UniProtKB/TrEMBL annotation:
The lineage of its organism: Archaea, Methanobacteriati, Methanobacteriota, Stenosarchaea group, Halobacteria. It comes from the Archaea. The chain crosses the membrane at residues 12-32, 52-72. Keywords: Membrane, Transmembrane, Transmembrane helix. It comes from Halosimplex rubrum. This is Uncharacterized protein.
Amino acid sequence: MPDPESREFGVRGWGLVAALVVALVVIPWTIIGIPQAQGLLEALPLGYRDAYLVLPFVPAVFLGALGVWTALANRRP
């Protein structure tokens, strides 16, 4: 009989939801808003090209780290 606690969403599940929201909602809308954020980009040492290259790496790195963490946590001896 499966353990009922193993079916709970848990921290890993909510981490995955947060990563997907960032990857699929926050970053695309940030990229859309880059032209309006010219003042912010000038305050940071980022140009438009740099911002378009760096922003997609944020969720990619987070999703990769989450995948490694999940794989190591679910590893069976």
